[in-house]
Design goal:
With 205 residues, the chain is mainly alpha-helical. Helix content is 78%, strand content 4%. The protein contains six helices and two strands; from the N terminus they run H-E-E-H-H-H-H-H. It has a two-stranded antiparallel sheet. A hairpin with a 2-residue loop joins strand 1 and strand 2. Helix 2 packs antiparallel against helix 3 and helix 2 runs antiparallel to helix 5. The longest helix has 37 residues.
Length: 205
C-alpha cells in the first residue's frame, strides 16, 4: 500500500515539475530560441519529453496544459494580431480556436510516445528514437496549428497578416517551412539531450 502511494506521489511531483517548466517557458523569453530571422519555440519540448519518459497519458495532459497557457496568453496576457487562432475571446475567434489551441498540443505528447516506442523497437537505438520523436512531434504541432489556421480562419488570417486571401496558403506553408523545420530540428536536439538524461535517471531510480 505504501509503495502504491509512493508511486502516485512521485507521479504527481513529476507532473508538477513539468507544469512549472511549461509555465516558465510560456511566460518568459526562455520559451523561444533565436534562429536568425525566426524564433523557434521550446514550450512544446517538456510535453514531448514527458510523453516519452512518463507515457502518453501524462504527455497528453501536459499538452492540454500547454494549450491552456496559449489560451490564457492569447485571451488576457499577451494578445497579438493572430490571437484569434487560440481563443474565441479575441475578435475574429470562435469555438474552432479552441480546437487549434488544444488538440495539436494534446497530440504532441501522444505522438512523441508512439514514435519513440516504434523507432526504438524497429532500430534498437535510443538516441535515434529520441531525435525522431522530437522532430516528428514538433512538426505535427506546427502542421496542425497552421493547417487549422487555413481550414478555419483563412480569410481572417489573411487580413490579420496583411496578405491577399489568395496568398494565405502560400503564407502558411512558408511559416511551416521557415519556422517549423528549424523548430523541429531544435526539438530533436533538445529531446535527445534532456530525454536521455531523464531516462537514465528513471532507470537508476
Amino acid at each position: 500500500m505504501r509503495k502504491t502511494k509512493g508511486i502516485r506521489t512521485a507521479d504527481l511531483v513529476e507532473v508538477a515539475l513539468f507544469i512549472a517548466i511549461i509555465t516558465l517557458l510560456a511566460n518568459t523569453p526562455l520559451g523561444y530560441i533565436p534562429l536568425g530571422a525566426v524564433n523557434a519555440t521550446t514550450i512544446h519540448i517538456p510535453v514531448i519529453v514527458a510523453g516519452i519518459v512518463m507515457g502518453w497519458k501524462k504527455g497528453a495532459f501536459l499538452g492540454f496544459y500547454f494549450g491552456l497557457t496559449s489560451f490564457l496568453n492569447a485571451s488576457f496576457f499577451k494578445p497579438n494580431l493572430t490571437s484569434f487562432l487560440f481563443t474565441p475571446l479575441y475578435p475574429g475567434g470562435n469555438l474552432c480556436s479552441l480546437i487549434i489551441c488544444f488538440i495539436p498540443r494534446i497530440i504532441i505528447g501522444i505522438v512523441a510516445y508512439l514514435v519513440f516506442k516504434a523507432v526504438l523497437k524497429l532500430l534498437h537505438n535510443e538516441s535515434v528514437a529520441l531525435v525522431s520523436a522530437g522532430v516528428i512531434a514538433s512538426l505535427i504541432n506546427t502542421v496542425l496549428v497552421m493547417g487549422g489556421a487555413y481550414v478555419f480562419f483563412a480569410d481572417t488570417y489573411a487580413e490579420a497578416v496583411g496578405r491577399p486571401a489568395t496568398d494565405v496558403l502560400v503564407a502558411i506553408l512558408t511559416i511551416v517551412l521557415v519556422n517549423g523545420v528549424p523548430e523541429a530540428l531544435c526539438a530533436g536536439v533538445l529531446t535527445l539531450g534532456i530525454g536521455k538524461a531523464l531516462l537514465v535517471y528513471k532507470r537508476k531510480g
